[in-house]
Every structure is written in C-alpha cells, then in structure tokens.
Design brief:
17% strand; seven-stranded antiparallel β-sheet; 19 helices; single chain
Length: 562
Amino acid sequence: MKLSKILLVLALFASLPAQAFEKPAQKHMIAAASPYATQAGLEILRAGGSAVDAAIATQMVLTLVEPESSGIGGGAFMLLYDKKTNRVTSFDGRETAPASATPTMFLDANGKPRAHFDAVPGGLSVGIPGDIAMFEMAHKKYGKLPWARLFAPAIRLSEKGFKVSDKLAAEIRQFPQMAQMPDFKAYLYHKDGTPLAAGETLKNPELAKTLRLIAKGGAKAFYSGPIAQAIIDKVNTAPVNRTTMTLADLAGYRAVEREPVCGSYREHRLCSMGPPSSGGIAILQILGMLERFNETQLKPNSLSEVHLSSQASRLAYADRAKYLGDPDVISVPIAGLVDPAYLRDRSKLIDEKRDMGQAQAGTPPNKRADYAPQRTPQLPGTSHFSIVDDSGQVVSMTTTIEFAFGSEMMANGFFLNNELTDFSFEAERDGKPVANAPGPGKRPMSAMAPTIVFKPDGNFWIATGSPGGPVIIAYVAESLIALIDGHMTPQQAAAEPHHVNMNGPTILEQDTPLAALAPALTQMGHTIRFAPLESGLHIIEKTKYGYIGGADVRRPGNVRGD
C-alpha cells in the first residue's frame, strides 16, 4: 500500500473535545471514548460493580454508539490488576480465523497479494468474534454484579436512541463507498440517500434484542442459536468476498487467560498485552532502548525525544514484523525480545545525531524459528478505556472491529469485524514463512497495548492505552514517556501532539507545534510526512490526592469518577 493511502486512512476527522476530570476521585474512575459509555461504566461502579463489570457495560454501549470502532462483533484484550491478590493477568478475546482459512486466502488468481482494501468488505475478512467469550471468562473470576445487570444500560439506550457524535457522522461521510454495502446504507443512511448527521437520534432495537438474549443466556447465546446463525448467514452470503464459516467455528471459539508481558522502566514496573498482540513487547522494547538516555533528552516533543523515540521505534517495528504472531501456532521468542541485554545491544544502534534509515530485525536470545518480515500493512481503528473500582481493581482494555465499520456488514444489530485482514497477505517470502500468515483457528497479530504501570513500591500508578491500528504502539509509548519522563498529567499526556515512525518516514501530527522540528529532523536524515493522527488515549493515574484522568481531545470521550 502506498504511503499516501496509509496517511489517508490515518486521517480520521476531529470530534467533540474531550474533558479531563479535574477533581480527584476517591472511590472509582472510568475514562472512555464516549460520554454514553463512560456513564454506563460509572452507573455500574456506583452500584458496587467491579472494574470488570463496568468494562462489560462500557463495551455494550460502545457497540451502539461507536460502531465504527468496536463492538461485540469484534474482539478485545483486557489487562487486569487485582489488588486483593496483587496479581496482573490478561484476557485474550482476539478473533480467530474459521476452519476454512488458508495461507493463500488473500492472494489473487495470479498468486499475488490482493489490494488491501479490496479484501476488507464482505465475508472473507470476518473472524470469529471474541468479546462475549472473553467477558464471560473475566466475569466468572472477577465480576460482582449479576451478568444480566451489566447489559441494562446498553439495552435502554438502544431502544431510547442516542445522539450521533461528530466523529461517527464524519466517518460515515469519509467513506461514501461503504454505502454500496446494504447493511451499512440501511443503518447509517436516510431513505433519501443522505448519511446520518451529527446530533440526529439513532435507535437500534435489533441490538437491544440481541443484548437481551446474551444477558439471559450468556456466551452460549452468542456462539450458538439465532445470533450465531445470523453471523454465519451474513458471512456465507455476503454481497462481496463470500467465504465459508460454520456454526462449529463459532461454537469452538475459546477466550484465553494469558500471562502479560512485564518489564521495567526508570524503576517502574510495566505490564502490557503479550502475543498475539505485538503491542506490549514493542512498547517494552522502545522504552528499554531509551532508558540509557536521560530525562532531559526525552522531554516530550523536543527534537531529541522525537529523534530518539523514532530510532527505538524503528528497531521495535522491525522485530515486530519478523517475530510476532499467534503464540499458540508459532514460536514467538517473547523473553528474548524483551531481554535487557538484547535491548541494550539494540540501543547501541541508535545514533543521537543521525537517523538510521530502515532498521533490520535483530536476533533475540532463544529464537527457535526464522521468519520473513511481514509487508502487509494494518489499518487504524479501535477504542480504549481504563477503569478503577472501589476495591482498587484496574482494567485497561483495548477493543476493536479493525478498520472503520469492520467488514461493513451487520448481524442482529452489530457490525462484524474485518480482523482477518490483520494477517499477512503473503504466507511466505523468499522461501521463508511469515509468522503472521493466515491459518485455520489462528489469531491475527495485533498492536493493541492496554498497559498498567506500578510505582517502585509495587503500588498501582497508571492505566493507559489507545486505538490507532499499528500506530497504537507509538501512541502508548509516547504517553508513558510523557507521564514518566515528562511528569505530565494524564490529560496533558493524552492531548500531546504525536510523532510516529513505523520503520519508514517520520510522521508528525499536522497542524501542531511539531512542524517546527521538521527542518532539523530533515537535516538529521529523517524523511518527514505530516498527517492528522487520530489516537484515543484514555488514562487514569493514582495520586496521593486520589484518581485523576485524561481523555484524548481527538475523540468525544470523557472521564468520570466519585
């Protein structure tokens, strides 16, 4: 895909300004990408619910009000800190490929990779959704309120209706070609052919019916019965890119509780999501390679910070492209990639005065397989929220249906994901397998990076995360540098201008003060591009005065707490 196309899909429209929570909260807090979703989570927290309970209610509402970014037709990664046991764990609700998936599923008749956007709409891109199974698993271990109670806010809002946000309206307008898909047009366009506008009321009684079934029957009601049949029918009879998915595919889906990846930075302990996400490993790599530089060199958005971060990012993205994928299928050298000695050696490749150009993957300890780097790009999208409950339980969760509006198809009131286009379209290159190649039952690599930070004394300090496709890694790493090295508040960190290097050009967020750095960076050898980078950072910090939070100004979310 050409760089101009990548920048185009990154250029999502601005939305309502976010609001910081200025007065510290003493009991609980939530930061999410929609005021409706934040209110739902807060309602559950005020009722005595756990952070997991609030996360479920929040996601159900996001399914309704932010259908372009996430929903029960997609998947998620939940990072959880349980204060009572002092344990950090993670829940993997990543979508899986159906049994019909093959390594060559995204090649054309000539054996060449298809154009990425040609494969997005329709059935071929749809993975088995993982949200509901993941939530049920987490709720059984960490829930407090009854399962059915958690669906009430979304059911109520689906029937009453909600006001379409600036962001949702802008994304409908941004992709007029999606109106060729019948579900998309029927749901998001008027009968006269005009798209929904910001401020209009949108109801979804079909989603309310679906949520009632899940509230009553649990995950089984989603993965079998009429909901499952609706998903199968939609995928197998899609207007474009039909494929084969079966009821057995859905019935066989399993969420997984996994050990997170953890490391340290400036004496703080950081935990994030491990494979099949690449996000946690890449962030630990970036910070590990930057730790030898002092705080003044990493002052957020200074010339030195932009340069040094871009160099560490190049090296991390190079490793990501070669080694990351589904750990249940391939050998991922997790410990080797975050090994401090390995990162110190990689850090030596960083020249403080000169851009290194395209970085090559390293050779981490305990590498057991040799892969070719992935070339298929991944698309921006997704949503993130952070929650702390009365007991100190913390959830940092990133959730997605992949690109805007997923596969552009709906089943029973919710959009189905296009997650399988996160796979490499090439199964092998130069005679070597690609780690993230498609396969039956396989989970595609992600960049989602829900992250929790602990102080040197071991107490919870920060929960952070962001949407953004492969750029998530850069957004979350920047937020951590801003909070730890820059001593910023969560709101300041969430609002900071972005710079990104995915082992290519250095992309600066347009219409920000970063433009002033472009001449100096160019002299250092950087190829500079500008783009309106849409993150969605939602951060909670525990201070001696209570909890404070930050919501990204690029999305319509907010922070609430008591």
